[in-house]
Amino acid sequence: MVETKETGSVANSAAAATSLFGEIAKYEHEQVVFCYDPATGLKAIIGIHNTVLGPALGGTRMWNYATEAEAVRDVLRLSRGMTYKNAVAGLNHGGGKAVILGDPRQGKSEALLRRFGKFIQSLNGKYITAEDVGMSTRDIEYVAMETRWASGRPEGDGGSGDPSPVTAYGTWMGMKAAAAKAFGSDSLAGRRISVQGAGSVGSHLIGHLIKEGAIVFVTDLHEDRLEVVAQQHPITVVKPDEIYDLDVDIYAPCALGGTLNHDTLPRLKCRVVAGAANNQLENEDLHADACAERGILYAPDFLINAGGVVNVAMEFTGYNREKAYKHAEKIYDTTLRIFEKAEREGINTHQAAMRVAQERIQQMAQLNARL
Length: 371
Ligand code: NAD
Known about the structure:
Elements: H1 5-27, E1 31-37, E2 42-50, E3 56-57, E4 60-63, H2 68-88, E5 94-101, H3 110-121, E6 127-128, H4 137-144, H5 164-183, E7 192-196, H6 200-211, E8 215-219, H7 223-232, E9 236-237, E10 250-253, E11 272-273, H8 284-293, E12 297-298, H9 301-304, H10 307-313, H11 321-329, H12 331-345, H13 349-370
Parallel strand pairs: 3-5, 3-6, 4-5, 7-8, 7-10, 8-9, 10-11, 11-12
Antiparallel strand pairs: 1-2, 2-5
Helix pairs in contact: 1-2, 2-13, 3-4, 5-6, 5-10, 5-11, 5-12, 10-11, 12-13
Family: Belongs to the Glu/Leu/Phe/Val dehydrogenases family.
Organism: Catalinimonas alkaloidigena
Keywords: NAD, Nucleotide-binding, Oxidoreductase
């Protein structure tokens, strides 16, 4: 057969499709939905990882991905992470997540967000969205005009509002539990703490740390974010790349994922990593062990950043802010229990949290099968 340009491109796209399904198989997703609307320029991907515990719940991220493959990888990892986060938080929700490809500062329009809402509605409640990086409660309001399966709507609209303060509160609880384990006291007074990312969650977390008397170092890619936080709190601002070299007790990743890797881990001088960012370990198999080997206590991200999803989940059962904070407060005890399990079973802290989540999913799957 003569190889023409056309047959070559069919072969290329076939190879891409094979590897795409390979990725989906690797992460064990139930369903991945590609949403494309030329009229509004919408390009989005919805990952539904596992619905054993209930409808998949997880936010939508808008990000200027360098490649489409990067967006696919992000949505697969994030939605899988939500399965374990929701399970370990005791929620009756499976894991899902969506990404919109584009610049969150310039690429949004009412039409694009509403079109995205229509795609979510077409899934009939199998996936419930909320906000994540690059999305605001205002954006969710537009999405919610087209679907009832959007949470994190503004409080004035009967929603639960911005989940970030509850996420920050839960992360603070997890960090205090990690401090108790690593330093013998959960007080953060006088502790040197670096925070990467002064966004919605990072800025609220910084508020808790400063109130407790911690010495806080902060970085962000955007100067305007740093200016806002520096006006509110006595912090030291550092350049993005300097954050890994600081002489601190605790490092709190609150930006994007993958910041615990072969390059950064040898630079870290902290005894604890506890932050809100999703997927902090670039490689879950390697880098949780690498933390332990370097004497760094890693508080699993999906365990301690669950406050936000707890908050939005409540929107469907009757929202109560006080109850949301009470639920997020439990992250302190759960974190200590996970550290104990890791020690008892001779595994790293990430594996211990995964085991707790997987055990719950397995038990519920068996329960469902018996009914
Ligand atoms: P955000 O977009 O408000 O803030 C993220 C900040 O990180 C931005 O200001 C951005 O400029 C900065 N940033 C990005 N890359 C950086 C880098 N390399 N160095 C320094 N700064 C960098 O997002 P957010 O809602 O605060 O979420 C932060 C993290 O927490 C994300 O990983 C998100 O998935 C996770 N998370 C958020 C919630 C929530 O309730 N918002 C819940 C759970 C997990």
